[in-house]
Write the structure tokens for this entry.
Amino acid sequence: MAIRQIRKIGDEVLTKRAREVDKFDDRLATLLDDMVETMRHADGIGLAAPQVGILKRAVVIDVGDGVIELVNPELVAAKGEQVDIEGCLSVPGKYGEVKRPQIVIVRAQDRHGKTFEVTGEGLLARALCHEIDHLDGKLFVDKVIRFVDPEEREND
Ligand code: NI
């Protein structure tokens, strides 16, 4: 495993649509392993492949309940809404309120190509939406209702 460099806002790789993964090989496994290590090292709760410069539809998330790896994730259902503060490893030092669904169902494949579904509520729903947005070249700053300063976030 290796820590990869996290691309920052302004890097055009973050604005592009990532391609579907069709090869479930060692290369994909290494990418996912590296993404998990990179996310942990950066103290993040989610990371999408474009953030390490790879335009593939692959995401890792850990909101505290263990790592979820999602390849070719697709939002299949969304219910309710929540407004909360969001940040991004590719947008250091910026935080803002973003509206997201309260509950989502996402269908994806695992690193071996097996299809599964995950239901996310609250923070997990937010992380799933945020990471899927990365695969479509979208950053949370495009959806922010109101930016907040980091201190306000810490008092949250
Ligand atoms: Ni992000």
